[in-house]
Write a structure and sequence with these properties.
Number of domains: 2
Helix content: 25-40%
CATH architecture of the largest domain: 3-Layer(aba) Sandwich
Order of helices and strands: EEHEHEHEHHEHEHEHEHHEH
Strand order of the largest sheet: 1-2-10-7-8-9
CATH class of the largest domain: Alpha Beta
Number of helices: 11
Distance between the termini: 18 Å
CATH topology of the largest domain: Rossmann fold
Structural class: alpha/beta
Largest sheet: 6 strands, mixed
Shape: globular
């Protein structure tokens, strides 16, 4: 497993480094690798042969589960939000990749998708598809948090601030749990909603963290020309690709806070790159259809 810390900015004020969890794997990448690690172990212990999970059109989680299932010999089922995708999924790079890994895709309405975590809906899926190991949307559960607790290592103890994007709370909770008491964890929300505070609190065992709002760019899976410009400029200057849904928004926020002198002089900041780069191809298709600027690199 390849990962590294890469310093990208050093000034008299602060030092900023990025932890390249995206280098673990192209598809089972970053926090998706961490979240799936112990869930795969548990699925094998319970003698399951099928993994079932949920996701949207550009879901990094769907791609990662499909790849992990293929690698470990599981059948996989992806319950996809949006019936309109049923007849054109092959034009979507993420969903086409998932089916190429052998994942069976089932498309449901957005109304039904809202029921995805209810026991009644899960029971209906078991009747329809037989026994399966259930992995929630985004992958967050206790075993996922356990995996994310391994993101920080001893060498990271010198950093004063740990910054990470948050979508479902599991990754940040794992980082909080393995952080030192004198470190501050900043969780940059990538979607709007007060529920994120509660989701992190469900699994976090410490209180040295803060939810940072204001960099959602309109909500989940929504991006702005300003964000695209930032991502493209960041790549030109550092050689590091950022995804537009998670790490791109987080890094935009970190750089903005640095410019506003949020961090004290001499602070050492570590930003976590959680992967998600596989979705760029699909996002560029969407951006082109909307006549918006494109992300100028692909991976």
């Amino acid at each position: 497993m390849k990962t590294q810390n890469q310093q990208i900015q050093g000034t008299p004020s602060v030092t900023l480094s990025i932890k390249r969890e995206d280098l673990i794997d192209r598809f089972i990448s970053g926090n998706k690798y961490r979240k799936l690690k112990y869930n795969i172990v548990q699925a094998k212990l319970e003698r399951h042969n099928t993994l079932l999970t949920f996701g949207g059109a550009f879901s990094n989680h769907i791609a990662a589960v499909a790849a992990a299932a293929k690698e470990h010999g599981f059948r996989s089922i992806g319950i996809i939000r949006g019936e309109e995708l049923r007849d054109k999924y092959y034009d979507n790079p993420t969903l086409a990749y998932a089916t190429g890994c052998g994942m069976q895709l089932e498309f449901i309405s957005r109304n039904d998708y809202r029921l995805k975590s209810t026991p009644e809906f899960i029971d209906k899926l078991r009747i329809a598809y037989g026994p399966f190991y259930y992995i929630p949307e985004g992958g967050t559960n206790a075993l996922a948090v356990k995996g994310c607790e391994e993101i920080l290592i001893f060498e990271d103890s010198d950093f004063d601030y740990i910054c990470c994007a948050v979508g479902t709370g599991g990754t940040v909770a794992g980082i909080v749990n393995s952080s030192n008491e004198n470190q501050q964890v900043l969780a940059f929300a990538v979607l709007k909603g007060d529920f994120l505070q509660n989701e992190i609190e469900r699994f976090a065992t410490k209180t040295n963290w803060e939810l940072v709002n204001g960099y959602e760019m309109g909500g989940y899976a929504r991006i702005t020309p300003e964000l695209i410009s930032f991502i493209n400029n960041f790549y030109r200057e550092t050689g590091i690709p950022l995804d537009p849904l998670y790490t791109g928004k987080m890094m935009f926020g970190v750089m903005d806070l640095i410019s506003k002198r949020y961090f004290p002089a001499g602070a050492k900041i570590l930003a976590i790159h959680t992967g998600g780069l596989q979705g760029i191809s699909g996002m560029n298709i969407d951006l082109k259809n909307k006549n918006l600027p494109l992300i100028e690199f692909d991976v």
